[in-house]
Design brief:
Radius of gyration: 24 Å
Shape: globular
Largest sheet: 12 strands, mixed
Number of helices: 16
Number of strands: 23
């Protein structure tokens, strides 16, 4: 661990953020005359292309037409207002005046059109979600016509992958040009980046002069860096360190319920998981309360579905019985018999690969718990950890289950979840399930503007997903951030979209 901390310190020194790897970074700010802040997270960034990564929005480099507030209500951002007059096929967006990109170019409807054209060219997932047929630009007015009625278009334009950038910039992968309060100063893929204030920012001059954002998947290293004063903000310090951090008067710990769901995705291209009863066996094998207590050290709550129970479109689900004996009943329905400690069907033991990833450390722990419980019912699970889970599960079919952490309702609506997981071309449709009744419900949801009716349709879709067990919702983890007490105006957002803002400050 000492070696990793030293490397982190060296990295920070190299990029000019700190004068030494000890002491509070605020002292360096005072000597340099600059207001600087260091943020360390577990968000990997191999590119700054906003069509491929959330970092450009999180770092305050680029912005979207629409944003979501902490009450999960959508608000204008680069777009001043919008309307539809034909139930969601034609949308008219009025782009704010007086905004420039960080290279001085004026933001108008044509620039937004050009950026969104690049979005649907570079991202198959966004092309599928936005369903754009045609766009017309005139002055500050952008008219979008969709291939079919899409009541959720403004909500979809909150997604960080729709961030508006200068699409003609020369090096979008390493230095995208956006309209946000900070512009890229340097970038080292999967390592660090530095942003500096954009003084002409349309929302008012940022309070910080520069911010260094680093990535480290070791939660203990992130925590130690905060305790030693090397960094100012740590996203997701080690769970077991939270009580200790709370006792330090120089550190603030912010814990909030998150919109995340730690889930099991099933692969229907694996023969065993085509059977609903096999999926149901794993749905009840782990007791979510045990996962909260063990893998999350109490920082979370059992999930009764993909959405928090407080959300209007969450399903009222029946209480389940959990454990190996319950799982065994479903395996028997699927035709498996327990023989010599092995679940056997057609002469073969039920075995498969479970894939997980390390930068959410509770997921490997949850995987190990599942592996241990599966052994009790004669199922052999081989666990593999990968660095880039999104790439792996969308390009390979050699897995039976993946453990995944997904923000299921980042825009305060159920449409994102159902379209992403269960519609053709959805970004997380890795299970390859095709349920006609579910597809019909989602199509109707996409056409419906009235929120009460949308909630009803979402619950109907949720009932189908639950009945067929197309995934398993295990726990909702808390979101927690720790920062030095001299950091001002930090907000731990529910959506996790907005991190570095113009109001973030150090005293």
């Amino acid at each position: 661990m000492r070696k990793k901390i030293s490397l982190l310190c060296l990295m920070l020194v190299t990029i000019g953020m700190l004068a030494a790897c000890t002491g509070n970074s605020a002292s360096t700010e005072e000597k340099s005359g600059k207001k600087s802040l260091t943020f360390v997270s577990n968000f990997p960034s191999d590119t700054l292309d906003p069509q491929l990564n959330y970092t450009t929005v999180r770092a305050g480099i680029a912005e979207t037409l629409v944003k979501v507030n902490e009450q999960l209500q959508i608000e204008p951002w680069l777009s001043k207002k919008w309307k539809t007059e034909d139930n969601g096929t034609t949308w008219v967006f009025e782009i704010r005046e007086g905004i420039t990109f960080q290279n001085g170019k004026v933001l108008n409807a044509e620039a937004v059109k050009h950026s969104l054209e690049r979005t649907i060219k570079e991202s198959e997932a966004m092309k599928s979600v936005l369903k754009i047929k045609e766009m017309k630009a005139s002055g500050q007015i952008l008219t979008i016509t969709t291939k079919e009625p899409l009541a959720t278009l403004p909500s979809e334009l909150i997604h960080p992958n729709t961030a508006i950038i200068d699409a003609d910039a020369s090096d979008i992968k390493n230095k995208p040009v956006g309209t946000g309060p900070f512009e890229v100063a340097s970038f080292k893929p999967d390592n660090s980046m530095k942003v500096k204030k954009y003084k002409e920012y349309w929302g008012g001059e940022p309070k910080l002069d520069e911010v260094v954002l680093t990535f480290n998947d070791d939660e203990n290293t992130r925590t130690s860096a905060l305790q030693s004063g090397e960094v100012d903000i740590v996203y997701r310090p080690a769970i077991e360190s939270l009580n200790t951090l709370k006792q330090d008067s120089s550190i603030v710990v912010d814990i909030q319920p998150s919109l995340r769901n730690q889930m099991l995705f099933y692969n229907s291209r694996q023969e065993a998981f085509k059977d609903k009863n096999v999926r149901k066996a794993f749905d009840v094998l782990l007791n979510p309360k045990d996962v909260v207590d063990t893998a999350l050290a109490g920082q979370g709550s059992p999930a009764k579905g993909p959405f928090l129970e407080s959300l209007d479109f969450s399903n009222d689900q029946k209480t389940k019985l959990y454990g190996p004996s319950e799982a065994q009943k479903y395996l028997e329905k699927a035709g498996y018999t327990l023989k010599d400690g092995k679940a056997i069907k057609n002469g073969k033991q039920l075995s498969f690969k479970l894939v997980t990833y390390p930068y959410r450390p509770e997921l490997p722990l949850m995987s190990q718990m599942l592996q241990s419980e599966a052994k009790k019912i004669g199922v052999k699970i081989d666990i593999q950890q990968v660095e880039n889970m999104d790439e792996y599960m969308t390009t390979k079919d050699d897995w039976g289950i993946v453990t995944y952490s997904l923000v299921t309702a980042p825009r305060g609506d159920a449409g994102y979840f159902f379209n992403a997981l269960y519609m053709e071309g959805g970004a997380f449709n890795v299970g390859h399930f095709h349920e006609p009744a579910l597809t019909s419900s989602i199509n109707e949801l996409n056409k419906t503007v009235d929120q009460t009716q949308r909630n009803k349709l979402a619950r109907q879709a949720g009932e189908i997903v639950e009945k067929e067990t197309l995934h398993s919702s295990i726990v909702h983890p808390n979101n927690f951030v720790a920062y030095r007490e001299n950091v001002k105006n930090w907000v731990t957002t529910k959506s996790e979209y907005y991190v570095i803002t113009k109001d973030l400050d150090v005293k």
